[in-house]
Design goal:
The structure holds two protein chains of two kinds. Chain A is an all-beta fold. Helices cover 0% and strands 49% of the residues of chain A. Chain B contains no helices and eleven strands. In chain B, β4 and β5 form a beta hairpin. Chain B is globular and about 35 Å long. Classes of the chains: A mainly beta, B mainly beta. At the A-B interface, β5, β6, β10 and β11 of A face β5, β9 and β10 of B.
Amino acid sequence: AQKITQTQPGMFVQEKEAVTLDCTYDTSDPSYGLFWYKQPSSGEMIFLIYQGSYDQQNATEGRYSLNFQKARKSANLVISASQLGDSAMYFCAMREGGYSGGGADGLTFGKGTHLIIQP
Amino acid sequence: KAGVTQTPRYLIKTRGQQVTLSCSPISGHRSVSWYQQTPGQGLQFLFEYFSETQRNKGNFPGRFSGRQFSNSRSEMNVSTLELGDSALYLCASSLGQPYQPQHFGDGTRLSIL
């Protein structure tokens, strides 16, 4: 079973509209972290936002917010007031476990959502 | 603050050769992770180094290896290259705690002929 599922391969959105990118995850570990990254066509991965499994509040970073619904294992990214420069691939990722001797695995990524902002 | 630097940016090799990729982390970051990105498999974790020790390893054959130096710089080596090794190889650094964000370099695009 996939650990990270992003069900929207591509999205077209009008400039200035809000965007919600879906992400569901699968883990039995009570301790995990969820991350969103942006990858423009140039290739670099840009960190956007982080949510810890024990965090009580939804994370926010400027125009980005994470709608964390733990019981549903959902961590959707919300981009408010989209801009043309937001056009890119967006990846949801998870890191499970903590450093209890065995170490934590690396990031597990979803397949990504290709977001295109139209003027 | 300088970001993660990966060299070279592009590399062309032939089957059977070996290749070494380099990654310089953000100053003060002690953890370096490597990822492979391909259109078919997406982003996959290769391994992570922390204080010169491999801390975690993904599900890749032994042809993929790495090391980390005392200044936290890391190298990744792929021996006996196969066509399927063509990919974007991304390096990421972090302070080392599990849930601190990893910051990525621009990647090395490796093409195997």
